[in-house]
Design brief:
Rieske Iron-sulfur Protein; binds FE2/S2 (inorganic) cluster; alpha+beta; seven-stranded antiparallel β-sheet; about 180 residues; four-stranded antiparallel β-sheet; globular
């Protein structure tokens, strides 16, 4: 049996109208998405050339919350700026309990393991083949050929923004002492 529009109960008619409208809106938005996204700067983690540091769950890290519990000299891993394919970045807390103006990329320069920070020893020790790096990522022991890469870090609106490194690499150890950043 067929029904014309007048015979369809009002509630059902409204439902069908909403359904049709929703479908049209969905198709329109899907078609416009590439255009909209092209003209919209990234917001999730993006601030111009930088990215906002996030925790392991993808939540933006709040500086006030972090500093309330972090010990001086702490290194806290975050999702940060992608350098040479890896975005795991350590936020460095200074002895004065401020966010340092640099972050340390956590990707070992030997074969790419994520390097944990040994707070007791005050250095990074790679679990894969034993490379060691100073608290600022300077190269202390191979087989890693280079120091850990750095990112600029700045605090904005209670968030940490990592951006590409600018300037020289002033870290200098017996194994690596080159001003030109190798990762730039
Ligand atoms: S990957 Fe770190 S020492 Fe080999």
């Amino acid at each position: 049996m067929t029904q014309n529009v007048e015979q369809i109960p009002v509630g059902r008619r409204q439902f069908l109208t909403l359904l049709t409208g929703g479908a049209i809106t969905g198709v329109t938005l899907a078609a416009l998405y590439p255009v909209i996204s092209y003209f919209t700067p990234p917001t999730s983690g993006g601030t111009g050339a930088g990215v906002i540091a996030k925790d392991g769950l993808g939540k933006e890290i709040q500086v006030s919350t972090l500093l309330a519990t972090a010990a001086p000299g702490a290194h806290i891993i975050s999702q940060g700026l992608t350098i040479k394919g890896g975005d795991a970045t350590y936020i460095v807390v200074t002895e004065a309990k401020q966010i340092a103006n640099f972050g340390v990329n956590a990707v070992c320069t030997h074969l790419g393991c994520v390097v944990p920070f040994d707070a007791g020893a005050g250095k990074f020790v790679c679990p894969c083949h034993g490379s060691q790096y100073a608290a600022d990522g300077g190269l202390m022991k191979g087989p890693a050929p280079q120091p850990l890469a750095l990112a600029q870090a700045a605090v904005k609106d209670d968030r940490i923004v990592f951006s590409p490194w600018e300037g020289d690499d002033l870290r200098c150890t017996p194994l690596w002492c080159q001003k030109k950043p190798w990762w730039v």
